[in-house]
Prior knowledge:
The complex is a heterodimer.
Chain A: H1 3-13, H2 22-31, H3 37-42, H4 48-58, H5 63-68, H6 71-79, H7 81-84, H8 86-111
Helix pairs in contact in A: 1-2, 4-8
Chain B: H1 2-28, H2 37-42, H3 51-59, H4 63-69, H5 72-93, H6 97-108, H7 112-132
Helix pairs in contact in B: 1-3, 1-5, 3-4, 3-5
Amino acid sequence: MDAQKVDMYLMTNSKFFESHQIPVLKESLLNVDESKLFGVQTAQLKDPTMMLIVSLLAGTFGIDRFLIGDTGMGIGKLLTCGGFGLWAIVDLFLIMGATRQKNIEKINSIIYL
Amino acid sequence: MIKRKKSLYILISTLLFAAYVWLFLNHQSHEGTSTCLFKNIFHIPCPSCGVTRAILLITGGDFMEGVMTNPLSIVVLLGLLCLPVLIFLDVLFRKNYLFQLYNYTEKAFRSSIVYIPFIIIIFVNWLWNIHKQL
Lengths: 113, 134
C-alpha cells in the first residue's frame, strides 16, 4: 500500500490502537495489496473512550464486554453481578486495552483474509 | 491463541473459586451483605441480584422458592456444577473441552436467534426482580 495513505490512515485512527502496535501495523499495511485499502478504511472500529463510558454505566451487567465481542465474558459478568462487584471495577482499567486489542484483531483479520 | 486459552482457564477458575467461597461465607452467616455495585449505588436490584439467596435455597432443598427468587440461579448452579468437572477433565487428560464450549457459546451468541430472546429474558427477569424488591 502507498506509504502516504498508510501514514494518513494511522494518523487519523491512532486512538483505536495501542501505541506499541502501531509500528507493526504500519509494516503490515505497507506490505499489503492496494485492494485491501477499502476494507481497512471502512472497518468499524470501537472507540476505547466510549467503551470506558459504557463500562462505568453498565459494567455490572457486562454490556461493555458484550459490545466489544467478548460474549462469553459478558455472560460471566452478567450472571455474577459484575464478578461480585470486583470484576466491574477491574474492568474499568482493562476495558480500553481490551477494546484496542479487539480493534487490531479486526484489522489483522481484514489484512490477512 | 495459547495465551488467550490460558488466561481464560485462570479467569474461570478464579471466578469459580470466588463463587464457592462467597456461597460458603453466605451459608455461614445470614447477614445478607451485597457486593453489587449497581444495587448499592442506585438502590435498584440488578438482573442477577438474589442469585446467592436462590442457590442457598435450592441447595437447602427448597427448589421452587429458589427458582421463584431468581430463575437465573438454575443457569449459575449448572455452571457451578459443570465447569469444575470440565476444568478437571481438561487438566487431567490435556483436552480443551472448556475452551471449545466457550468458543461455541461466543459463536452461538452472534446469531440473532439466540441473543434477542436472551436479552428479552434478562430484561423481563430484571423487571420481575425490581417488582419483587430483591
